[in-house]
Design brief:
By secondary structure, the chain is of the alpha+beta class. It has 4 helices and 4 strands; from the N terminus they run αααββαββ.
Length: 198
């Protein structure tokens, strides 16, 4: 067995090691450059966001001061007057959209033969809608009850009740004062389309 080195110079694989070391160094340098660029970018972004936040806070403070100044200049009496005027305008609009023709068509289809209308007074109530006070003449109390049942059956009249029933001065006819909440067809939602009828 030969134990001596026959080469004049031993061979080491230095090029491979140097190539690997260079590759590792390039990877570390690239990662470091990437991290540094990210730190610089985020630092700039953080600075810009901080400046924007301080500007927004200053703007919010200015707006709060302006709102306080505007609230101080508002006269509560003028606000109350304007709201009263708006309510009156809404009442006028509600009255304008009230259809007497539709109402009397309803009465025509619900009145029994022996019942006569004497007076109809609508009143627009914000809570209940249109409340009707109806004065009628009838031969019997049953005729008045039938009229009330017919009204309720249409669905256009709800909470119909008799406030007063008595004989007239000649003791020949019953007079009754009825009160009901009127829901016209124009105020009901359209079951097909979900919108109000025109």
């Amino acid at each position: 067995m030969i134990r001596t080195n026959l080469s004049t110079r031993p061979f080491y694989n230095e090029r491979g090691v140097h190539a690997w070391l260079l590759l590792v160094a390039l990877i570390v340098a690239a990662a470091t450059a990437f991290n540094v660029s990210r730190v610089v970018r985020y630092s700039r972004s953080d600075t810009q966001l901080a400046m924007q936040a301080s500007r927004d806070e200053a703007r919010a403070g200015d707006l709060r001061q302006q709102a306080a100044r505007l609230r101080a200049t508002v006269d509560p009496k003028q606000v109350e007057y304007a709201s009263t005027e708006a309510r009156q305008a809404n009442d006028l609009i509600d009255r304008r959209t009230f259809s007497w023709t539709e109402l009397f068509n309803r009465f025509e289809s619900t009145l029994p033969d022996d019942v006569r209308l004497a007076a109809v007074r609508p009143k627009v109530d914000r809570k209940n809608g249109t409340v009707l006070t109806i004065n009628v003449f009838a031969k019997t109390v049953e005729d008045i009850s039938k009229f009330m049942e017919n009204m309720e059956a249409t669905g256009a009249f709800v909470k119909t009740e008799s406030k007063e029933e008595q004989f007239d001065d000649q003791q020949t006819l019953w007079t009754a004062t009825l009160e009901t909440t009127y829901v016209p067809a124009s105020a009901k939602p359209d079951t097909a389309g979900g919108a109000a009828k025109p």
